[in-house]
Specification:
209 residues; alpha/beta; Rossmann fold; seven-stranded mixed beta sheet; 42% helix; 22% strand; globular
Length: 209
């Protein structure tokens, strides 16, 4: 019986990478997207890649960051899937190596119970190029998942995780149900459910309770 479901945000609950949308505003979309891809495929350390990408955003108006964060395209089936999992009695949480401007805003729209992500530092209305938060490292999601399991009294067998990239590997290590959603090969190899199309409701057909 599943009791806890943890979803990644970028390219899982949301169709795209939040940081890439920010970068497009500065005309550096391709450069940042390339670093994102290297990190998500496991070829680049996540912490280093995050610092590097956020550094490139220095000077972007924080009002633009908020506007983009509040107008992101959510993944088909996200609202329905989360609602159904909660109906089945699960706690649903979002872990993101991305940013609170996006995940906290999406919380009430998509319906999950809590979000853990990072905060973009800003000063005088502009990004400083610095970032801090809960999900800065390759190990962060697994580390936070174990803490949550301990607080909630939930076992690995009672835990479902869903993600698409290399920084989701650490939480895959602590869950009985591991969903690779339109994922990189590095994550697919560790999954026991693989979904190839952009429709989160497919998860519901593959799990029980």
């Amino acid at each position: 019986m599943l009791k806890l479901a943890v979803f990644d945000f970028d390219s899982t609950l949301m169709d795209g990478e939040t940081i890439d949308f920010f970068a497009e505003e500065l005309g550096i979309g391709e450069e940042v997207a390339r670093i994102t891809e290297e990190a998500m495929s496991g070829r680049l350390d996540f912490f280093e890649s995050l610092q590097q990408r956020v550094g490139l955003l220095k000077g972007l108006d924080y009002s633009v960051v908020e506007k983009i964060s509040h107008n992101l395209p959510y993944m088909p089936g996200a609202i329905e899937t989360i609602a159904e999992l909660k109906k089945r009695g699960m706690t649903v949480v979002c872990f993101s190596g991305g940013f609170r401007t996006a995940t906290t805003y999406a919380k009430d729209i998509l319906g999950y119970d809590a979000d853990f992500s990072n905060a973009l530092h800003h000063k005088d209305g502009k990004l400083t190029g610095l970032v801090g938060g809960d999900m800065m490292f390759n190990f962060s999601k697994g580390d936070m998942l174990v803490r949550l399991q301990n607080i909630l009294g939930v076992s690995e067998e009672e835990t479902l995780v869903c993600g698409d990239g290399a920084n989701d590997l650490s939480m895959f290590a602590h869950a009985g149900t591991r969903v690779a959603f339109c994922a990189r090969e590095i994550l697919r190899k560790e999954a026991n459910i693989v979904i190839e199309t952009k429709d989160l409701t497919q998860i519901l057909e593959k799990i029980e309770g």
